[in-house]
Amino acid sequence: MGGSESKSRDQSGATTAAGAIAGLAILAVAAGVAALMGDSSTSDGRRTMKAPGRDMRILRDDFERDTASYFRDLRRK
To answer: Is the pTM of this model over 0.70?
Structure first.
């Protein structure tokens, strides 16, 4: 009786530890993916954004400074 109870407790503890390690690994991967996808700045710290109407990225502060001319130039092309 004592031997089988001890064995199942050891297996349960190992399963719990393996589950915790797997959970931490999943969280670490998710955090890394979120950091890569959420990085919308250049190396000098200026933020970028997807250019409206184009398939490229532009500097957000340049766009916000003069949005009317951006769209005017976009229609000319």
So the answer is: no
